[in-house]
């Protein structure tokens, strides 16, 4: 039985590749969630008027990759101490959120967040929100698989994120 995970961690361009490289991931879609417009566009979301945040929707096989493993990957792609965006991407549309699709996912996300808070990796509080999933709207086609379609631009857009994550995790990728 397939499951769905939805994660917001700043620009969705930077959130696809880290998950896309693992067995058991059936699909990853860039999109918008958490807002009030029924047909959000990139321009409208960036304006801050829709209430949406950029996110990725991941369909996965839990027999191959667990939700807990996805949570570990998620924490290692974001700055969970920054509620007002991620890295150079600022504003509500870039806020970090784990959108749970079941009560089991909610419990796992809360436990994972507490484990990260207790880990000592961050001195500041972990402020990533954990919210019930709401409608997810697929982003425009040019946003899908951005790292594959535009590798040079992707590389430039992810430099600050990569430097921060290397500093925090420095060889500890599987310890969150």
UniProtKB/TrEMBL annotation:
InterPro entries: Met_Sox_Rdtase_MsrA_dom (IPR002569), Met_Sox_Rdtase_MsrA_sf (IPR036509)
Entry EC number(s): 1.8.4.11
Residues annotated as transmembrane: none
MF term (GO), any: peptide-methionine (S)-S-oxide reductase activity
Record family assignment: Belongs to the MsrA Met sulfoxide reductase family.
Listed PANTHER family: PEPTIDE METHIONINE SULFOXIDE REDUCTASE (PTHR43774), PEPTIDE METHIONINE SULFOXIDE REDUCTASE MSRA 2 (PTHR43774:SF1)
Name of the protein in question: Peptide methionine sulfoxide reductase MsrA
The organism of origin for this protein: Vagococcus hydrophili
Gene that encodes the chain: msrA
